[in-house]
Design brief:
This protein has about 475 residues and is α/β, with parallel strands linked by helices. It is about 40% helix and about 25% strand. The termini are far apart. Bound molecules: zinc ion. Zinc ion (ZN) binds next to loops.
Length: about 475
């Protein structure tokens, strides 16, 4: 281990926790290291214990849940097993927007409510609160999942990220803090140009991080740039991808170009890391000690391999409980035990934000990010495209034309390929734009589909009628 890393791990990191009053994070780190090896039944027992005490707490102190459950004719005491939780009504984003304040536990001290909010990339910004204790357990969970990728406290990390709020400051204090604690190089992907990709490539070689943490599509773009220019990429120990869907082609490209393994991860602002890959790379283990995840299809639990809507219950945030929260993503379960021996359940596939999908003429869902990247990958002259869908079977391309764009050829290709993926009757429209900026969060939206959200949300509603 290099000197600075040792210093960070054993001195400046614990010191910074102590200064912030976050020392209980160390306790959670120890606990999660141990509980990841619990067997399936022991883990489920732990989850049930935490779930039951969360439900009792919400019933006693959260007016929203009390009245919601009363209306639905259910009570926390009905939940005797984890499966019984399905009898309680799901929590929709709209419920949080409308009734958020009455979800906060009336018993909770105001000074222990840490505000947090989601961005607008899903179209529904939300405000919510964490307890200080939950902040510590979330940070500990992230470190545990980082370790699966061989990334520990004190290791250098390069972050291909777009959110300006996550970037370190440029003052002396921030620079020192970065040198002796965070050891980060932030490469802002909010607005990617070729010149910027070149700089990212050079900065990585100069900084030599152990790990790269990246938006999946941003690292895929960088890999494509490096490969197409015949450059040799800096090779880190591992790459952790997050925040966007990572399809198989993009993963292969990134692993090939950077000569290391990719560890995909799925998380959200509301509940932090939800699931991530272990060294076996067969699905993503859920952070089961803190979250109880359900996948619902037509109002019933989805079978392994079956795609459905994700519902998350945060078992450790008592300040403002989120119980059966429909996070807006779809996924499926991976069945059977993992080679690594951990008992934490696994998501086989997270198909990403519902709004990332296009709905075909016959109701099929196609990843907008995939289609957008595929089209441009095959025909670089297209430049950059963003897909907008208002209703199933229709799509509008917003095109920032490349220098060699030839309308008749590119548009014919666009129409033919789109119909091949979405159905022969798909209505294809297009408009030219000068710029396709990233979202304020830094994520680039390859696709925005109103149809997909309605379509997938309809699964749950159709069943509850
Ligand atoms: Zn595993």
């Amino acid at each position: 281990m290099e000197m600075v890393q040792k210093l960070v791990r054993h001195v400046s990191f614990p010191l910074s926790l102590w200064r912030r009053g976050d020392l209980r994070q160390l306790g959670y780190m120890k606990e999660f290291e141990r509980t990841q090896h619990l067997g399936v039944n022991d883990l489920r027992e732990l989850q049930l214990r935490r779930l039951q005490s969360l439900l009792q707490h919400a019933q006693a102190f959260c007016p929203y849940y009390r009245s919601c459950w009363l209306r639905a004719g259910v009570a926390p005491s009905d939940v005797r097993s984890l499966d019984d939780l399905a009898a309680l009504p799901p929590l929709e984003k709209q419920d949080i927007q409308e009734h958020g304040p009455s979800m906060i536990a009336t018993s909770w001290p105001l000074r222990d409510l840490i505000p947090n909010r989601t961005g607008g990339s899903t179209g529904t910004p939300l405000s919510f609160f964490l307890s200080h204790d939950r902040k510590c357990s979330r940070a500990a969970a992230t470190i545990r999942h980082n370790r699966w990728a061989g990334w520990d406290v004190g290791d250098k990390v390069a972050i291909l990220w777009g959110a300006a709020r996550d970037q370190p400051g440029s003052g002396l204090r921030s620079r020192l803090r970065n040198l002796l604690l965070e050891r980060q190089l932030v490469l802002d992907t909010g607005h990617i140009t070729e010149a910027k990709l070149k700089r990212f490539h050079e900065d990585l070689k100069g900084f030599r991080p152990r790990v790269i943490l990246a938006y999946a599509q941003a690292i895929a773009l960088l890999a494509r740039y490096v490969k197409s220019h015949g450059l040799s990429a800096y090779q880190p120990h591992a790459i952790v991808t997050s925040a966007e869907v990572l399809d198989d082609d993009a993963r292969r490209l990134v692993e090939d170009v950077f000569g290391c393994q990719v560890f995909n991860r799925y998380g959200s602002r509301e509940v932090s890391v939800i699931a991530s890959e272990c060294e076996a790379h067969r699905g993503m283990h859920v952070m089961g000690e803190g979250l109880y995840v359900e996948i619902e299809k037509n109002g019933s639990p989805a079978k392994p391999g079956e795609m459905g809507s994700i519902l998350v219950t945060d078992l450790l945030n008592l300040a403002m409980p989120l119980i059966r929260y429909r996070i807006g993503d779809v996924a499926s379960w991976e069945g059977g035990p993992c080679r690594c021996g951990r008992g934490l359940p696994r998501l086989a596939k997270v198909a990403g934000r519902v709004t990332d999908f296009l709905v075909g003429t016959d109701g099929r869902l196609v990843s907008g990010a995939f289609l957008s990247l595929y089209l441009v990958g095959q025909r670089p002259a297209l430049g950059q495209v963003q897909l907008v869908q208002e209703e199933a079977g229709q799509v509008l391309f917003r095109i920032r034309r490349g220098p060699r764009f030839r309308a008749s050829e590119e548009l014919k290709y666009l129409c033919d390929t789109t119909r091949q993926y979405l159905g022969a009757d798909t209505v294809v429209d297009w408009e030219y734009v000068d710029e396709l900026p990233a979202e304020p969060s830094g994520k680039f939206l390859f696709c925005r589909s109103r149809a997909a959200a309605e379509y997938v949300n309809g699964w749950g509603q159709a069943a509850s009628v």
